[in-house]
Amino acid sequence: MKTGKSLRSAAWFGSADKDGFIHRSWMRGYPEDVFDGRPVIGICNTWSELTPCNAHFRELAERVKRGVWEAGGFPLEFPVMSLGETNIRPTAMLFRNLVSMDVEESIRANPIDGVVLLCGCDKTVPSLIMGAASCDLPTLVVSGGPMLNGKFRNTMIGSGTDVWRFSEDARAGILSLPEFREAEVCMSRSAGHCMSMGTASSMACMVEALGLGLPQNAAIPAPDSRRLTLAHLAGRRIVEMVHEDLRMSRILTRQAFENAIRVNGAIGGSTNVVLHSLAIAGRIEVDLSLHDWDVLGRDVATVVDLMPSGRFLMEDFYYAGGLPAILRLLGENGLLHRDALTVNGKTIWENVQHAANWNSEVIRPVDNPVAAHGGITVLRGNLAPDGAVIKPSAASPHLLRHRGRAVAFDSIEHYRQRIADPELDVDENSILVLKNCGPCGYPGMPEVGNMGLPPGILRRGIRDMVRISDARMSGTAYGTVILHVTPEAAVGGPLALVRDGDWIEVDVEARKLHLDVSDEELAARRSAWKKPEQRMKGGYQGLYVDRVMQADRGADFDFLVGCRGADIPRESH
Ligand code: FES
Ligand code: MG
């Protein structure tokens, strides 16, 4: 079906001169009529064997293409750098902004009228959405879906979550090495991304909550045939979206972000979503701050009983009703902007108003939640003037108000060196403080904030202590872990000044994070402070450290904030 108005791609494929010849001739192997002005759909694929969570994406892309062809579009798949959480060092987060540039420039530079983003593993989601948002074409996201539940000796085990648990048990001497190894193949046993409510699952829920994906995008397991159908339907729908000129900016409104923040509270979602949402909002020019996260998330009860906050996994969540059931629940409790528009052209409420909850263990009733005050809490104080975050639903209630003495580590290497030292002056009331692991510090803000406990304490059966850092933690992790302390230590934030033995006060209810050291003493320490040596100068890492913003701005590059649109660039020949 041709549209009345000429599309962006016509500037490449529509001309009769030498340029049109060049653009068409080199495409090879397509019938002539695909260049008749029909919507050209770019399928942005993060397939890679080095990103095992996205390794099934070739088939997904083929299904999207079927839908695009059926609807009268012309699908063209293109690769971008893929970020696999488990293999990329020093951390996939270092490259999120790089990939977003890859995506943005690939879309703008090519004859593309609409985009389908194929994402799965953690950073593949925000990087693609950020890049596409800076272009603002009609865009639809298809998530790759979670793995099937892990099964180990007839018990359910969750991605990541049980790695931390097994690792602590092994260090405490209650799990043998052969058992630890056996668990590996039991955890990851099908295609898909982490199936606990880690960052990938949380971001897949965000895709659906923001209205960027079709209903049930978040939870259909990767190997379930309905995932293929969803991809097929997405292909059909993106062609219509181009005809309707339904751009990202009409979907990604302030209301959509508010819905997403509340959903993250209800699902017990990852702390990483905070960073990614701020970065995405910056690209589409929606005013969103860390403060919004605290205010909007504060009263949302966590009702989805999934690891790491709860008991079940994404497969169970899908069978229980998936995200539509949560959106309906929020809508019925006055916590959803019902008019927010979604990619299928309907409002979010039209999509979910009849959604069912088939399992009240997995999706619990509001009056019997996993945590009454879910969401993400933003702490402030002289230790984190620009904020820090904690996920109370994954923390120990008795530590949410705590005063303890710091055991401070200058780097992750320093931590590794000292943590098993029997001479280390530490007990379960101590607070482990890790510095220089923020955006500039590591660089890339790695997921090391949930430092393992000292072995002597683990052997006594203790499994949680307060931990504070400028790092992130895996969305699959748990514990009383305060993260994203801003400004970070490497740029001279107060975290850099903490010393062993300092008293620190945490009061999550009061939103407080206080270093109990006098201003005079802190000033003296500041004048003695030396900026840590940058590990790699020049290259991408040099650019990263020069231009990355702090966590309260989503750790995007300062020069990437904003929507630059998709005006047609100058001709190439
Ligand atoms: Fe890919 Fe967790 S490692 S989603
Ligand atoms: Mg992760």
UniProtKB/TrEMBL annotation:
Gene3D superfamilies named among the record's database cross-references: IlvD/EDD C-terminal domain-like
Superkingdom of the source species: Bacteria
A Pfam family of this chain: ILVD_EDD_N
Segments forming domain Dihydroxy-acid/6-phosphogluconate dehydratase C-terminal: 361-555
Keyword tags: Iron, Iron-sulfur, Lyase, Metal-binding
Mitochondrion as UniProt keyword: no
All residue ranges annotated as the Dihydroxy-acid/6-phosphogluconate dehydratase N-terminal domain in the record: 38-351
One annotated GO molecular function: metal ion binding
Similarity section: Belongs to the IlvD/Edd family.
Name under which the protein is recorded: Dihydroxy-acid dehydratase
Gene source species: Paracidobacterium acidisoli
